[in-house]
């Protein structure tokens, strides 16, 4: 794992407080695609359990895996009784029980690409569903976004995570759909977007940025400086787009 992938634990409470959760429609998309009630699921890189809660509240028995102890402790404080937890990176999970659904919420890009899909297949029942979903929180006003970009420029050219396989943004099918299509292990690969627009205070938006890996790996004094610069150029409240891109695929029988 990269240093950015391992940077979140120190900010577990902030991650829980400032990261937007996931819309209920997400579970509807996954279950409609499955075509039957989903009873068991494995979550990869569960973080503080924002997606875990959605599926568990629908009666799914979720096993949430997360390599960071602080994130896992935060998750355990917020999830219902039908959630089991395992402290483990995806690469360290051992084949054994198979699940009807395996999913990753804004976490798949941190997994090792080597043997990613054979590992995934080993965790899924034949015909089982894989789901990946997430997306950046972006300022909706271009002028505000430009001001923030200028404020952070001495420290960061960008705070985005690039496409893991280099898929250009203008291409319709985005990663990981591109990898799923090439893998040979999956069929019926689909991509959809759940559109969302949210309003946040300037302080909460900066709080969100404090959980973004590009900022987390900066030295502490640079973090303080860049967040101070950003908050000074923000209005009191900001509108953000927080669209969730969903990829779904079915393990071949």
Automatic annotation (TrEMBL):
GO biological process: methylation
Superkingdom classification of source: Bacteria
Keyword Methyltransferase: yes
Classification via Pfam families: Methyltransf_25
Record's keyword terms, sorted: Methyltransferase, Transferase
CDD domains: AdoMet_MTases
Domain Methyltransferase: 42-128
GO molecular function, one term: methyltransferase activity
Protein name: Methyltransferase domain-containing protein
Native species: Nonomuraea longispora
């Amino acid at each position: 794992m990269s240093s950015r992938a391992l940077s979140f634990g120190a900010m577990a409470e902030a991650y829980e407080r400032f990261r937007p959760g996931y819309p209920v429609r997400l579970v509807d998309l996954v279950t409609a695609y499955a075509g039957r009630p989903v009873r068991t699921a494995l979550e990869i890189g569960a973080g503080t359990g924002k997606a875990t809660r959605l599926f568990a509240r629908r009666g799914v028995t979720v096993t949430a895996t997360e390599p960071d102890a602080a994130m896992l402790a935060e998750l355990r404080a917020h999830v219902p009784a039908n959630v089991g937890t395992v402290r483990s990176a995806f690469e360290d999970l051992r084949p054994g029980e198979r699940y009807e659904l395996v999913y990753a919420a804004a976490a798949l890009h941190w997994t090792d690409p080597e043997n990613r899909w054979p590992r995934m297949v080993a965790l899924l029942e034949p015909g089982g569903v894989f789901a990946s979903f997430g997306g950046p929180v972006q300022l909706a006003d271009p002028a505000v976004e430009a001001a923030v970009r200028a404020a952070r420029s001495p420290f960061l050219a960008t705070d985005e995570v690039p496409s893991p396989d280099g898929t250009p943004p203008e291409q319709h099918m985005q990663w990981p759909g591109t990898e799923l299509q090439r893998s040979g292990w999956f069929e019926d690969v689909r991509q959809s977007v759940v559109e969302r627009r949210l309003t946040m205070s300037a302080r909460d938006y900066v709080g969100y940025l404090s959980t973004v890996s590009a900022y987390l790996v900066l030295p502490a004094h640079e973090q303080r400086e860049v967040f101070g610069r950003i908050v000074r150029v923000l209005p009191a409240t900001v509108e953000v787009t927080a669209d969730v891109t969903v990829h779904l695929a079915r393990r071949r029988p």
